[in-house]
Amino acid sequence: MTLVLNEEQLMLRDAAAGFLGDRATVAHLRALRDRDDEVGYEPAVWREMAGMGWTGIAIGEQYGGLGYGYTGLGVVLEQAGRHLSPSPLQAAVLVGATVITELASGAQKEQWLPAIAAGERIVTLALQERRHHAPLQTAMKATRVGDHYVLDGSKCLVLDAHVADAFIVVARLDGHHADHHGLSAFLVEAGSEGLQIERRSVVDSRNAGALILRDVQVPEACCLGAPGEAWPGLERALDMINIGLAAELLGLATEAFERTVAYLQERKQFGRVIGSFQGLQHRAAVLFAELELARSVVLDGLRAIDAGEELPLRASAAKAKLCQVAELATNEGIQLHGGIGMTDEYDIGFFIKRARVLQHLYGDSHYHLDRFAALSGF
Amino acid sequence: MTAIDTFRQETREWLETNCPASMREPVRSFEDYYMGGRNPEIAHPDQKSWCDRMAERGWTVPHWPKAYGGGGLAGEELRVLREEMARINARKPLDSFGISMLGPALLQFGTEEQKREHLPPICRGEIRWCQGYSEPGAGSDLASLQTRAEDQGDHYLINGQKVWTSYADKADWIFCLVRTDNSGPKHEGISFLLFDMDQPGVTTRPIRLISGASPFCETFFDDARAEKRNLVGEVGKGWTIAKYLLTHEREMISGFGAATGRPLGEQALEFIGADSDGRLASSSLRQAIAQYQLDAHCFARTMARAGDEVKAGQGLGAASSMFKYYGTELNKRRNELNLAVGGEPALGWDGDVYHGGQTARAWLRSKGNSIEGGTSEVQLNIVAKRVLGLPDA
């Protein structure tokens, strides 16, 4: 496998660019925000995405998916990043399906993956509890009582929480704080007694929410994989998810950059286009170089998932680099647009807002640079 | 047995017989590279015989046509030869600007006669070449060069001065940018000339660098003579060839960005120590090294992707400037970190205790990477204009 997209992937990219650029754009996101839409995305568009098979893009064919792998999913996520397309693609397809694939038993996969692949159900991950991503410090309590488990605790930044059909709730069954051992993941249906779902308003105008679980009873069969042994699968799933988010950040940063370069070519001051000033040219050229590196590390990560290679170092490299490059691209985007970049009317602001949420999700550049160093042995 | 298997077996046997044991030792210093020439610098007597044996088969430059002294190898066979050499750690028999720079330009722009005259001696390591590009008044603004070549019928007379001529004091011939016409725009009227350095009109003077080494010279021409048949391409159209060669040079220099040797983090842990969690004790240095290693990781993936793209038939084009810019800036960062990690011994200049000051000297030398072959600022200009389409001031 190489770092160049093949024929099939190029066709998928063009199809995604065409569809999302028409049906799920920044303008659509803006409209959803402005009318305080109850759902937060266009269900009709989501159904069409499912109709094209995108909801099952990385899910194996035995579970009703397309089996295009994560490079295929990454290609679509990159386009979703370019257009800031509002949909449950991240929550259900990248996050939910990946965690189930990596953690669940055969029977559990049979139960959930075909429904996700068909776009019929949205299953999302409830992991974060406090200010920052720190999965080993999970405090949500799971207690075994007879033939079921009881969950107690709270979660935040759960993507698409208020429209999800079920949650994968990560909880501590035993072991000490920060132990690898003792973590479990439970599938909890949205209507469960004692589960409170609160929609929250986040800076990117996309869907996120918080959960409160008070004595929520979960049948034994809803524990994903072996009790207390969720960490290895969860860690691998998080690596895959972070590479996918890096692909979305790549699309977002590239689009912000291209819009900025286009603006440099059109805006006139001092009697000439500002893109003719060397001070600005060099900033654009540096950003171009960083984006080239960003593309390589994302493609390498996606390829490594599909080739079944070691992921931790690659995933942290991809997420750390893409957080940094997206931060730079969106900051330069605002600055080089000048005053107009500060207005809500202009779209560039939507890019910087979405970027920071994606950066934060499942570990930001600081988290992943630190992990990259630790994995490198220092 | 398929043809390629036969080729592999024969190659393996020939290399086993002909590659001296000393030429299977890793390259330890710059002297271990054999550059050839009329008066070759020889660090080990086997260097010349290894080069001669390989040259006989055309394998000093295996991918050049046989007619010009190359091996005529392509695709599978080329790959097999490289694999078989790597298998026994065989050194490259010959390194030179003739191979890396002039040769590709002659193959692209030279006449049949020029190729037959100049390429075989390059393959055999008989003639060592140097590059006459920069002048005291023409650095980043290379096209403003003023070294004159006057038409004297069957030859040119050359007057002027070049600077930063790599190994001019050791080279036999020079490929040189000269001005044949001063009347038009500066990019026109430049010609690409080849001439012998062994003549009364040519003098060289080595330049001592901040690293203490003298790899570059000032080169003076005082009625130096070049035969007309050694003009490459058309008169006044030398800038096209110059740009082609600069692209080659940039790709070569950007390779410096690829990390080699022991990872910095590992070294730092040994020299500085770890905290109770096993992390490098200096958190600030740890972050700087992590950021460097992250960027080097991403750069290496980008070099690999560029290779895949070329194989897939997509060109690199002006993006070679991006590689030159990023690779050299990375190499400078690495050398700066080498100093920080190394501490006192890294500041040593001379003597065995300091390994001849190799860390400090390499650090100082690296400062030139983002200047030679076009400065970082010039590379960013090229990216802005040719890749991003931003207008001239």
Describe it for me?
Chain B: Residues 236-388 form the Acyl-CoA dehydrogenase/oxidase C-terminal domain. The complex is a heterodimer of chains A (378) and B (393). Chain A is an alpha+beta fold. Chain A has helices at 7-23, 26-34, 43-51, 69-83, 89-103, 106-117, 231-266, 278-306, 312-337, 348-360, 365-375, and strands at 123-126, 141-145, 148-159, 166-172, 183-189, 195-201, 207-219, 223-224, 268-269, 272-273. A 4-stranded mixed beta sheet of chain A has the order 1-4-5-8. In chain A, strands 2-3-7-6 form a 4-stranded antiparallel beta sheet, with no helix packed on it. In chain A, helix 5 runs antiparallel to helix 6, helix 5 packs antiparallel against helix 7 (231-266) and helix 9 (312-337) packs antiparallel against helix 10 (348-360). Chain A starts with 6 loop residues before the first helix and ends with a helix. Chain B contains 11 helices and 8 strands. Chain B has helices at residues 3-18, 46-56, 75-87, 97-109, 112-123, 238-254, 264-272, 283-311, 319-342, 358-366, 376-387; strands at residues 129-132, 148-151, 155-166, 173-179, 190-196, 202-207, 216-227, 231-232. Chain B has a 4-stranded mixed beta sheet with strand order 1-4-5-8. In chain B, strands 2-3-7-6 form a 4-stranded antiparallel beta sheet, with no helix packed on it. Chain B starts with a helix and ends in a 6-residue tail after the last helix. The model of chain B has no long low-confidence stretch (mean pLDDT 93). The A-B interface holds A 2-4, 261, 264-265, 272-273, 275-278, 281-282, 284-286, 288-289, 292-297, 299-300, 313, 317, 320-321, 369-370, 372-374, 376-378 and B 263, 265-266, 268-269, 274, 279-280, 286-287, 289-291, 293-295, 297-299, 301-302, 304-305, 308-309, 311-312, 314, 319, 322, 325-326, 377, 379-381, 383-385, 387-393.
